[in-house]
Amino acid sequence: MQKTDDxxxxxxxxxxxxxxxxxxxxVPFSGTYNLLNDDGMYHCAGCGAVLFSSEGKFDAGCGWPxxxxxxxxxxxxxxxxxxxxxxxxxxxxxxxxxxxxxxFDDGPTQTGKRFCxxxxxLEFNKTEL
Length: 129
Ligand code: FE
Prior knowledge:
The protein has helices spanning 5-11, 14-21, and strands at 41-44, 50-53, 57-58, 66-67, 76-81, 88-93, 99-104, 114-117, 122-125. By secondary structure, it is mainly beta. The protein has a single domain (5-125), classed as Beta Complex (Metal Binding Protein, Guanine Nucleotide Exchange Factor, Chain A). The protein has a 6-stranded antiparallel β-sheet with strand order 3-4-8-7-6-5. Strands 2-1-9 form a 3-stranded antiparallel β-sheet, with no helix packed on it. InterPro entries: Met_Sox_Rdtase_MsrB, Met_Sox_Rdtase_MsrB_dom, Mss4-like_sf. It comes from Candidatus Uhrbacteria bacterium CG10_big_fil_rev_8_21_14_0_10_48_16.
């Protein structure tokens, strides 16, 4: 999906634009989905692609929604991120290129993964599961 900057600015809230298109990070513990425990699916707020399920969600205590897996590994791209003096793995929506968050290898479940994702990059849909 290719959209111009102007299109994204029109369709997204300023905070969504800052996170998804400018690789920003929301203030920890500020997001809508940080502590949400309901059953359902989490979509990309930019393009609607299904990314995460409540089945993989856990509370990492870090202030951002955390998941131990993606629903379909093709739905995200992992990119080495050397910004801010760290080497991290950036998680990007494969469909629209939107920045979602980062992936760490210190997850508490069997997968060992912790997808640390900005709430504002996600759209929760309760009815689908
Ligand atoms: Fe997307």
